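User: Teach me something about this protein's shape.
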Amino acid sequence: MAAGRDTTFLTILVGTLFMASLTYSYAVTTERAEPLPEELENVDIVERRGDSVPLDLTFTDETGQQVPLRRYFDAERPVILVLGYYRCPMLCNLVLSGLIDGLKPLEWTPGQEFEIVSVSIDPTEGPDVARAKKENYLRAYGRPSAGAGFHFLTGKQEDIEKLAGAIGFKYRWVEERKEYAHAAVLTFVTPEGVISQYVYGVLHEPRTLRLALVDASSGTIGTALDRVLLYCFHYDSKTGQYTPAVMNLLKIGAILTVVLLGAFLLMLWRRDASRARAQATGALG
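Assistant: First, the predicted structure itself:
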């Protein structure tokens, strides 16, 4: 009888787990099958790491001057590229505010170690609104000298679309709401204009921004420790942070183990050699 009860229990347990797995699978499938809201259709980021940004595009800066995009790529400092628009009612402000808050604890300053280039995706916006936005965020940042590294640009539809397409920034105008739908993302670009990293969201840990800048800098900024950390961590788009790179950590652990073992064996060998010499000297004496 006990064996029969055990068999019945196992049957019920397996059946319950099977039904639970079916229910979970159905829920996941149903969740994935739900269509996106219409205003978010064709709104996405298609990552293009390793591709070049078209630096020959021309935009208008916050002072009203026509400037080629390459002006901000001097082969020395990495660039944080932000696409949005200045009359955005919410998301764009959150993106830029989150960037400023994440940069405040860093000792690096725009215009010295890196550049920030914000480009409006709205061709109807001009230098007046760009200048006002720059002033607002400079006040929030609290470092007046950073003005040399903060750039707020506007441009023509054609140039905006070329830049957005080059970095994989897919957006759309929502007529019903009279606003643009777009993703919240920072694009980190090397001093030579090559896309290095995408950092998503509106809240950013200072360490995440620091490592992304080091990654994009081609070695022009950051310490040796930063580069070691960059080897040990990789950016996880799901968490929006740099997380431990397990395989690299294992490699480092293996190397350290070999080095320590070698040092220990060398120490033993030297000690044995010293004893042997001492014994030989004693025997001769």
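Now, about its shape. DSSP finds seven helices and 13 strands in the chain. The chain has a mean pLDDT of 79. If you'd like, I can walk through any region in more detail.
User: That's plenty for now, thanks!
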